[in-house]
Amino acid sequence: MTLGKPQVSQTRSFMTVSLIELWERFGFYGMQALIVYFMVQRLGFEDSRANLVWSACAALIYVSPAIGGWVGDKILGTKRTMLIGAAILSLGYALMTVPTENTWFLFSALGVIVVGNGLFKPNAGNLVRKIYDGDDSKIDSAFTIYYMAVNVGSTFSMLLTPWIKDYVNATYGNEFGWHAAFAVCCVGLLVGLANYMMMRHTLDAYGSEPDSRPVEMKKLAAVLGLAALSVVASAFILEYEDVARVFVYGAGICVLAIFAHLIRTSEVSERAGLIAALVLTVQTVFFFIFYQQMSTSLALFALRNVDWDFQMFGAHLWTWSPAQFQALNPIWIMLLSPVLAWVYATAGRNNKDLSIAAKFALGFAVVAAGFFIYGIAGEFAVNGKTSSWVMIGGYGAYSLGELLVSGLGLAMIARYVPERMGGFMMGAYFVASGISQYLGGVVANFASVPQGLTDPLQTLPIYTSLFNKLGMAALVCTFIALAVLPLMRRLTDTHHSHNGNNNNLLAEAN
């Protein structure tokens, strides 16, 4: 919604949103790089508990934007809700700077981050859509740059926060380095908020309908009150594994029920597209199970069984902290995105572009290759330690798979789902993604290392066994995706045929 005639260029308005998104992702991924290590090394959690706590938190982080987007559109306004979310996120990171080993305090801080993310994330994206509303040619390039801002922020923070943690711990001989690193995440959010306040006039013309009215204090108080209750509920879910399991599996049943209801009550002309969307959503759920390994099993593998020194021809190049290996994901995304965009554009011009379903199948095959790289590397390990270059190769394959599957997930919803169901289905898609984040933690626990086991020679086969199994699982997903290609082709043809007939009828009516 445009609230008035824009007084500044779209580019300046877009940069305002992109910069606060960059700093928000700086804070989030800086925290994500350390959180599992923090629970295992600082708080003494078993691997299994740390994996499930973080995976349950990731699930909540994916589910919460479905509510935050509605608050922004209907109650407080897109811009106000985004700012409140950023402020709550900075509070969450500030709480994590408190040097306490109380687990309920940690879960409460994570609950604050869940709520802040839910209010911030959907509304920042909605502002970008509003800035370029009606200009399809610009909105695609805008979201490409926006995605790049996400990866720039995450790359720098994933490299910086582990270094700060190690430096402070080594310099002062205590464990405050963890909290100093989380403080950097908080500072990042505060910098983003300060920058936004200086540039906020560039967004005067954009927002949802409530943005055009003075804030209603009763509604603001109600949202903040419900946010506080949501923090308590999130902390409770994170504290008790059984509650988290019931919540996640219950959400899964709800998503399937939503799909079934929409397919059953939809027009005949819409069913083929909805069934296609359901098939691809299920495939996306499996992909995110693999994706969640990055911050769980792969992170702990880097801690225990990777040589942190990068060497070439026997010469030392540089040394990384184990947490910094997670930065390889956004680095590869930034390197591969323009290449893949060029390939898509070239194939499209020559009428040789692959369907989304075919790209999903290719994505799973590449993910399988990535996990086999990790698994086979164990055969060439020295004293239980694999080469750092293995992580570069594995993350490269992993990131290409992400671009082929996860990067096309929202495009799939836009292509196959009727516009009147778009918002509803987008929410269902994110809930499904959240469920798979939790399932990823369950899978990671197959490589849980018993407390006290520190010998790399003993931990290595635990991880490589899981990675080889995940590689096989990704291959199975590849074959299933290939097997359903004929079905997807028929569904897509039917969907396009009905849409073409509807468009012809509309043309005749006009």
UniProtKB/TrEMBL annotation:
Membrane topology: Multi-pass membrane protein
GO CC terms: plasma membrane
Pfam families: PTR2
Molecular function as annotated in GO: dipeptide transmembrane transporter activity; peptide:proton symporter activity; tripeptide transmembrane transporter activity
Compartment list: Cell membrane
Keyword annotations from UniProtKB, A to Z: Cell membrane, Membrane, Peptide transport, Protein transport, Transmembrane, Transmembrane helix, Transport
Gene3D superfamilies: MFS general substrate transporter like domains
Chain segments annotated as transmembrane: 22-40, 52-72, 81-98, 104-120, 141-164, 176-199, 220-238, 244-263, 272-291, 327-345, 357-377, 389-414, 426-447, 467-488
Entries under SUPFAM superfamilies matching the protein: MFS general substrate transporter (SSF103473)
InterPro entries: Dipep/tripep_permease (IPR005279), MFS_trans_sf (IPR036259), MFS_Transporters (IPR050171), POT_fam (IPR000109)
Keyword match Amino-acid biosynthesis: no
GO BP term, pick one: tripeptide transmembrane transport
PANTHER family named among the record's database cross-references: PROTON-DEPENDENT OLIGOPEPTIDE FAMILY TRANSPORT PROTEIN, RESISTANCE PROTEIN MDTM, PUTATIVE-RELATED-RELATED
Protein name according to UniProt: MFS transporter
Source organism: Shewanella cyperi
